[in-house]
Specification:
Blueprint lengths: L1 H6 L2 H42 L23
């Protein structure tokens, strides 16, 4: 890509950079949507432990039944 950028017009290089950035944004948004529910469940568990006075909360699979087979750690 360095060689391609050196021998190609600047407009084409910027256009390709914009396209690749758009792909990265697209795939990251998909990942965020798919993982959002689990992230909020884990955050809720963490906050509940902190509000219960636990100084260093710990994740265990049995605390969140919805994530029993999906997560091993925070």
């Amino acid at each position: 890509m360095v060689f391609f950028g050196a021998v190609t017009s600047l407009d084409l290089v910027w256009a390709m950079a914009d396209i690749t950035m758009a792909f990265m944004v697209f795939f990251n948004l998909i990942a965020i949507v798919l993982l959002g529910r689990q992230a909020f469940l884990l955050l809720k568990d963490y906050r509940e432990q902190k509000s219960a006075g636990i100084k260093e909360p710990v994740y265990t699979n049995d605390r969140i039944p919805e994530l029993k087979d999906k997560g091993e750690c925070w």
